[in-house]
C-alpha cells in the first residue's frame, strides 16, 4: 500500500512537484495559504486540508516548499507547528532553499520527538518541476532517505545524498551561485556582441559549440530574443540564494567575489521593480548600462 503524502506550499514550484507525486499514485493532502493554489490538485484527486496541522496529522510523509528561512522555521518550530504535531515516525521533508542553519535547528527538535527530518532543496526551476526532472540534494539520515526515495523520485531522477542536514542547502547555494554567475557572464558577453553588431543567434551557436558553452545559452532563444521574462525563477529568490551563499562564505572565512557582483545585479533588478520577473530580466539592466536594446523577435 502506497504511503500517504502531505504537501504544504503549492505555489510556483510546489504545485508541479505535488502534481507529479499525485500522478504517481500517492494519496495526498495539500495545504496552501492561498486557496486558489490548491484547486488544480484537488481536481486531480488530492484532498484539500484546512491547515498545515491537518496535513501533518494525517500523513506519513510531509513535504514543504516555502519561500525562505523565516517561513520554514515558523512552520516547523512554532507552537502547534509540524514538529510538535507530527506523529512519531513521520518523515518531514523540506524542499525549500534556506540557510543551512534552518535545517540544523529543525532536525534535533524533530529527533527528540521521534520524528524524522530531511532537507531536500531542488534545482531545475519551474520547467524542471513540471517535467519531473529536478535534481534533489538531500541532507539527513540515509536510511530515512531510502524510505522517502519513492516519493522524491516522483519529482526528479537525480537524488543526491550529500551529507548531514545543512549540507543540502550548502550545495544548493553553491549551485545557484554558479548558475547565476554563469548566466550573467553570458549576458555581458551577449550585450558586447550585440553592440559590436553581431547576430545573437550566431553568438549562441558559436559559443554553444565552443569552450564557453553552457546551459545559460539556452536563455538567448527562449527568453532574451522573445523578451519573455515571466518566471521561471524569480529575481528576489535568486537574490536570497546569493545572500545564503555569501553568508556561508562569511561564516567559513572563504573570500568570494563573483557572488557579490552577481548579487548586485539582482539587487539592481529589484530596485527597478523587477523582483517578481525571471532572473533573465537582469539582461535589461545590462542593456541600459551599455545603452543598448536587444531587437525584438519579428
Labels describing this entry:
single chain, 298 residues, alpha/beta, Rossmann fold, N-(1-d-carboxylethyl)-l-norvaline Dehydrogenase, domain 2, 2 domains, six-stranded parallel beta sheet, three-stranded mixed beta sheet, 14 helices, 50% helix, 12% strand
Mind telling me the CATH superfamily name of the largest domain? NAD(P)-binding Rossmann-like Domain
Low-confidence stretches: none
How do the SSEs run, as a string of H and E? EHEHEHEHHEHEEHEHEHHHHHH
What structural class do the secondary elements suggest? alpha/beta
Give the strand order, joined by hyphens, for the main sheet: 3-2-1-4-5-6
CATH architecture of the largest domain: 3-Layer(aba) Sandwich
Provide the number of structural domains.
2
User: Major sheet: size, sense and barrel closure?
Assistant: 6 strands, parallel
Query: For the record, what CATH class of the largest domain applies?
Result: Alpha Beta
From the spread of the alpha carbons, the general shape counts as globular
Strand content: 5-15%
Structure summary, number of beta strands = 9
Radius of gyration: 20 Å
Task: Could you tell me the CATH topology label of the largest domain.
Answer: Rossmann fold
Share of helix, binned: 40-55%
